[in-house]
Structure formats: C-alpha cells, structure tokens
C-alpha cells in the first residue's frame, strides 16, 4: 500500500481541485502558498504527509512560469517531508507545443520541463490530452495521459444527426476521426497554412460539409485564430451550423473577441484551465467538468487498480 491518500492543490485551478475532492469524499490538505516581497514563492505543506500517497493538482497555465515553479516547489516540499509517493496531476501541461527543435538553436522546452518536474520529486504524472502524445517519452517515470473524450462526447451525442467532425488542420485528423467513429459521424479536414506563430490561414475543406452540423475539434483554443478561420471556411462551404470543441480553453489575447465574432453557435470546452467570469460573458462557452474523470484516475492509481479503463 502507498499510505493514506492526500490531495494538495496549487493556485492555478483551486475550483477543480475542490471538485475532485468532492468526488472522492475527501478534503484538500492545507498548504500555504504565498509570495515574498521580492516575488519569490513561499510554499509550506501544513499537515503531516510522511508515508502518504500524495496527489498535487496543478495546471501549468497562465501565468505559466509562476504556476510551473509553484508546482516544482510543492513537489520538493513533499519529497523532503517523506511522502511515500508523489503524483503530479497536471490537467493542462504547459510548454507542450515546444516538443521538438523548430530552428537550429532552439530548446526542446517540453523535455526540459519534464526533467525539472522529475528532479523536483515527482514519482508519477497524470495529465489530460497532451498536445503531442510522444511527450510521455520525455519522462523516465509513469505518465497517464487520459482523454477528455468521454466528457466532450456527452455534450455532442444529443445532436449527432447530420454531424461532421472537422479537424482544423491535418495534424488533428486522428483526433477528429476518433470522435467521428464514436458518434458515427462524418469527417472533414480544413487545409491550413500557418504564416507566423499564433497566426493561421485556412484554405479549403476536404470532405462534405454542406448542410451539416460541423464540430471543429482541437486539443486547445489559444488565440482562436485556427478555430475561427476554420469556422469561416465551413460556413462558406455551406455548413448549417458550426460548433467549436476543445479540451483546454487557454483563450489568450484576442480569443474571446474572435470567438464572439465567429459563426460558432457554441464553444464546448472543459475545466482543465480556469476561465475568468468576464470571458464567459460572451455567451457561447459551455464548460464540461473533468473532475469526476480525474477523481476516478486518482482513486485507481491510489488503489493500484487499472487506469486503462479511462483511455478511451
């Protein structure tokens, strides 16, 4: 046995951590999270964790570097407090898009972050919908990359008639195909060419979308350029309705303005990242909770049960 189960939350998504505890019938272990006057982070675990099986819930979302450093300090504190096993539950893994060298003198940031978390004291990681599945290989320890598909599919099943799952680029085709198979829906791909970082130009559609309900699938919505370009092209090709669907609502920069102006009837996301109230005022965003799924994964890891039941 791995000792008593304890859940500790970072500051990035406290509401999700509390929802996970509600599903588990547990409470959050108290933890002091403060800033010193010079901006350095102060962490102190305020309960005994010696011999315990500890899960630290922290999405490395904006401000990314602050939340990442906070997670590292929490892992180090737990290691030094003699926790038997420490699992980082990182619903959204930041820096995942920097998973390879794209120019001669560039870092592989996703690998460096993996090394930092490992050195800090992590024994295992749980995450949702990694941007690139091969990032699991950056860690020399177990990584459970579970999928938000069951949660997102629940919001789509009720309107699957005449539905087409659309990948906004060629790289996301496998994801869109997996959803299309489960919904017995059609599949289309938007041919996209990116001119610069965070700028995308959609070109044309591969597949039949005329008079269909098109669901544009992606793993994340950042500045929403890709999504909105795809929506415009789909409407131009005769789509009856367009819905955006993504796991991670980063929603940075002009994302909300773009989504509000785009021809989406609905934008379906999960709560892997917190969405400020002012961003929800656009009226299109529907948030699905992954708390139950993460709670089940934590329970199975703690009890040494199979986690593969969540890999759908």
UniProtKB/TrEMBL annotation:
Any note on cofactor binding? Binds 2 Mg(2+) ions per subunit.
Which amino acid positions bind ATP, per UniProt?
A: 38-40, 97-98
Which EC class heads this enzyme's classification? transferase
Record-listed Mg(2+) binding positions: 131, 169
Positions of transmembrane segments: none
Q: Catalytic positions?
A: 192
* Name of the protein described by the UniProt record: Ribose-phosphate pyrophosphokinase
Q: In which pathway does it act?
A: Metabolic intermediate biosynthesis; 5-phospho-alpha-D-ribose 1-diphosphate biosynthesis; 5-phospho-alpha-D-ribose 1-diphosphate from D-ribose 5-phosphate (route I): step 1/1
> Mind telling me which SMART domains this protein's record contains?
Pribosyltran_N
Q: Name one GO biological process term.
A: ribonucleoside monophosphate biosynthetic process
Gene name for this UniProt entry: prs
Per the UniProt record, one Pfam family is Pribosyltran_N
Q: What is its main location?
A: cytoplasm
Give GO terms: molecular function aspect only.
Answer: ATP binding; kinase activity; magnesium ion binding; ribose phosphate diphosphokinase activity
The record's Gene3D superfamilies line, in alphabetical order, gives:
3.40.50.2020
């Amino acid at each position: 046995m791995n000792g008593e189960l304890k859940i500790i939350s970072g500051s990035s998504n406290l509401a999700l951590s509390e929802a996970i505890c509600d599903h588990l019938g547990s409470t959050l272990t108290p933890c002091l999270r403060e800033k010193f006057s010079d901006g350095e982070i102060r962490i102190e675990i305020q309960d005994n964790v010696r011999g315990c099986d500890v899960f630290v819930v922290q999405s490395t979302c904006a401000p990314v570097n602050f939340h990442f450093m906070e997670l590292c300090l929490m892992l180090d504190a737990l290691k030094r407090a003699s926790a038997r096993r420490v699992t980082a539950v990182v619903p959204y893994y930041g820096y995942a898009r920097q998973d390879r060298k794209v120019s001669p003198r560039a870092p592989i940031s996703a690998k460096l972050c993996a090394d930092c978390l490992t050195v800090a004291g992590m024994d295992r990681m749980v995450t949702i919908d990694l941007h690139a599945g091969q990032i699991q290989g950056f860690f020399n320890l177990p990584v459970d990359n579970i999928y938000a598909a069951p949660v997102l599919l629940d919001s789509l099943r009720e309107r699957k008639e005449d539905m087409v799952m659309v990948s906004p680029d060629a790289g996301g085709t496998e994801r869109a195909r997996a959803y299309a198979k489960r919904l017995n829906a059609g599949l289309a791909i938007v041919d996209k060419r990116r001119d610069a970082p965070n700028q995308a130009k959609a070109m044309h559609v591969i597949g039949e979308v005329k008079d269909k309900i098109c669901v544009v699938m992606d793993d994340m919505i950042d500045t929403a350029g890709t999504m909105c370009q795809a929506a415009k092209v789909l409407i131009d090709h005769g789509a009856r309705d367009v819905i955006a669907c993504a796991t991670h609502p980063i929603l940075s920069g002009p994302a909300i303005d773009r989504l509000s102006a785009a021809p989406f009837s609905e934008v379906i996301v999960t709560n892997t990242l917190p969405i400020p109230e002012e961003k929800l005022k656009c009226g299109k965003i529907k948030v699905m909770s992954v708390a139950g799924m993460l709670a089940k994964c934590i329970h199975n890891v703690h009890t040494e049960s199979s986690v593969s039941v969540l890999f759908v």
